[in-house]
Specification:
The protein is built from eight helices and 14 strands. By secondary structure, the chain is an alpha/beta fold. The strands form two sheets. The protein has an eight-stranded mixed beta sheet with strand order 6-14-13-8-9-10-11-7. It has a six-stranded mixed beta sheet with strand order 2-1-3-4-5-12, with helices on both faces.
């Protein structure tokens, strides 16, 4: 099921389902959303703090449900990641999301909520967040691409590789799924785990060691979640090194680790955690083609 398009002038709810939000960054992100023609609306408990989370699990769950059911809110944009989204998964039934199929945008810890949307059969969007990349302006997010995807009702929307490199060439078709690798590994063995059978996997992370990348990919593989994967798109993986003189690059490591799958593989697509490039958006739950030029949507991302 496709969520409705997010049209110019639409109201978007801002949710903090994980770690606390810094007010100055939030305000900068809200100003940027207004600049591109959207109307931000804060969730009720957006600025709460409870240790390392933005309020209690009950408060964050209530905010998510309230934004879902608010007819004036066209989409839900994550404020930031951190930790806390796993707390919400048991308390938001899939049928509640299907009753109010809204686009959700975010990355990092919000990978867990994108998995929740996937379980409900609703397309979601892995990309920039309001009090992080969006707050920094167009140098750290691509408003034309993000908003274009949130309005892409027809097939053909293209996501060129730009600076990404091909590790294993080829052509594949499948539904886009994925997110932050650490969260996907944490979901393995739970009812919310993501299967990549028949899918193009979009996998990214930040500041994890090379052996941790291998461990998480192996965990997903041993759990059967990578069985039948059609292609793999790795993010930029900033900071994913042991030390400067380790003798191999992250690209070389991922090329070796992904050989076993015998599918096309790209590295450096700037979604989720990035270096200094604008954070790009990937529509999950949407069928796409992967080839030497990039990703091309084979269907619309929204209704």
């Amino acid at each position: 099921m496709k969520p409705p398009a997010v049209l110019p002038g639409a109201t978007v709810g801002i949710l903090a389902p994980a770690s606390p939000v810094q007010l100055s960054w939030l305000e900068a992100g809200e100003a940027e959303l207004r600049r591109v023609g959207l109307v931000p609306r804060r969730s009720r408990n957006l600025l709460k703090r409870s240790g390392y989370t933005a309020g209690s699990a009950a408060e964050r769950t209530a905010d998510l449900i309230e934004l879902l059911e608010d007819e004036e809110v066209s989409a839900i944009f994550g404020a930031r990641g951190g930790y806390g989204c796993l707390d919400l998964l048991r308390h938001v039934p899939p049928e509640r999301i299907r009753e109010h199929p809204k686009a959700i945008l975010g990355g990092s810890d919000l990978t867990a909520l994108l998995a929740l949307w996937s379980g409900a059969g609703i397309a979601s969007f892995h990309g920039p967040m309001v009090a992080q990349q969006i707050a920094r302006g167009p140098s750290r997010w691509d408003p034309d691409e993000t908003l274009g995807l949130l309005r892409a009702r027809e097939p053909g929307f293209g996501l060129a590789w730009r600076d990404a490199e091909i590790l294993h060439p080829g052509r594949a078709e499948g539904v886009l799924r994925g997110g932050c690798l650490s969260i996907l590994a944490a979901l393995a063995g739970t009812p919310f785990a993501i299967s990549f059978r028949g899918a193009i996997a979009v996998l990214e992370d930040i500041s994890v060691k090379p052996y941790q990348l291998e461990r998480m990919l192996t965990q997903l593989s041993l759990a059967g979640l990578l069985d039948g994967v059609k292609g793999i798109v790795f993010g930029q993986m900033p900071g994913c090194t042991q030390h400067p003189d380790q003798g191999y690059t992250t690209a070389e490591l991922l090329a070796r680790l992904s050989e076993r799958f015998e599918v096309p593989v790209a590295f450096g697509f700037a979604t989720g955690h990035t270096d200094l490039d604008p954070c790009r958006t990937a529509p999950f739950g949407v069928r796409a083609r992967m080839d030497a030029d990039g990703l091309t949507l084979l269907e619309g991302a929204v209704a």
